[in-house]
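All the exercises in this workshop are built on plain-text protein records. A learned vocabulary of local backbone shapes supplies the integers on the structure line. Once this layout is familiar, the rest of the handout is easier to follow. An example says more than a description, so a record of this kind follows:
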Amino acid sequence: MRSRVRVSDGRHLMVERQGDPRGRPVFLLHGMPGSRLGPAPRGMVLYQRKMQLITYDRPGYGGSDRLPGRRVRDVAEDVGAIADSLGLERFAVVGRSGGAPHALACAALMPDRVTRTAALVSLAPRDAEGLDWFEGMAASNVLAYTTAAADPDGLAESFISRSAEIRRNPVRLLDDLRRELTDSDRTVVNDAGIRAMLLANYREGLRTSAYGWIDDALAFSQPWGFDPARISCPVMLWHGVKDVFSPVGHSRWLAGQIPGATAVLEPAAAHFDALSVLPDVLNWLLDEREAETAVC
């Protein structure tokens, strides 16, 4: 089911709900660039698990209005508005890659509503004390985030040009990444089904503009607007040790900040391996032993 949800400042967000509409709710927050059409289990799998999965385009992506100058913390208001529109009081949240810091924001800022949170291949805050933020990071991402901090207009110009090329041919983004992919990532991306899903995701995310992508990069290059140490609900951090797009040191740092967080660090895995673990993560998020009692 697709809908447009209006938030308090008048913006509209494009929302997709899959699976059992009476099932237990999970918000899945997409990567960067991305959209509500990003990788997710099929609807039948969700029905079998009595689960409803809610995805939406972050501001500036796909069918959602832009929010200029947004910070990571601003996601909480949008997710809360979507949950209200669907009549959901409490829910779990999972974010992958660029969606992971936003999932942590929901946990920190909606303690009465979020039951469990999972952050897959997350970045840490740019101002994380004691973390070498760029250690182990691919050159393309180092350049993007360095430019975002030093020359936001230059970053916007670059991403607008790249987005126009990707709209014409979404394979371009995967081709651009290919030289930096690990062997593990290449195996995942070469799967025909996953590749088709990723291409549809990128095409929709950049369909109207590059500003969702631009605003994500800018948001990750400044303080998030909340303290991960204040998260008190169960949190899983999953990371492939070979990840070069979001280096594993970021999840190690987060694990040291979030009280009681479970860190799953897979030695042989990389960035795109997070796609294959999503079904198991969804099971963890809806663990029946704690679904009725766990709150942030």
Observations:
- Confidence is low (pLDDT under 50) at residues 289-296.
